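Lecture notes, unit on protein representations.

Consider one protein chain, 186 amino acids long.
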Amino acid sequence: MSSNNVVIKIAQPYAVALLDLAKTKKVTGKVSQDIQSIQNILAQSDKLKNFLANPLKTVEAKKEVIIATVGDQISENTLSFLMILVDRKRIGMLDAIASKYLELAYQMESLTIANINTSIAFSPDQETLLTEKIKVMTKAKEVKLIIAVDPELIGGFTIQIGSKVIDTSIRGQLRQMASHLDVVAT
C-alpha cells in the first residue's frame, strides 16, 4: 500500500467527522469556505506546511501558529477542529483532510470537481463550454473547474474527474504513440 493511500485512509474519517459536525450545526457553507481558505494558505506557504508536519514542534507551538495564522479568519467550529487535529498529531495531514472534506461536501451538493491541466489558459467562453460538456458527461447539477496551466503539455489539455482521466494533450498522444511503437518493436 502506497503512503498516499495510507494518508487518504487516515484523512477520510476526519473529513467525514468535520462534515457531520458542519451538517449538524448547519454551517456547511462556512466550514467549506474556511477549509478552502486554509488550503489556499497551505498552498502558498511550504514553510507553514513543513512546520505543522514537523513532529519535533510542540503541540502548543503548533496551536499558537494556527491561531496566529488563521484564528481570526475562520469560524470557531473550524478552529476547534484544527486544535483536535493538533492534539491527535494529525495536523500534518491537514491538506489531505481538507481535500477529502471538500470532495465530500461537493458530493453532498451534487457538485463535480474537474481538475483541468491545460497548455494555455482557457477563455471564459471555453470554460463555459467545457463546464457544460462535463455536466452532460457526469450528469452533475454543478461542475467546478480547477484549472492549472502546464506548458509541458505542449498543446491540448487533460481532465481528471475522480479516478477518470481524459487526456487530449499532445504530450499524452506522444506517450501513446511511443507505447504503441514499443509494442510493435517487440
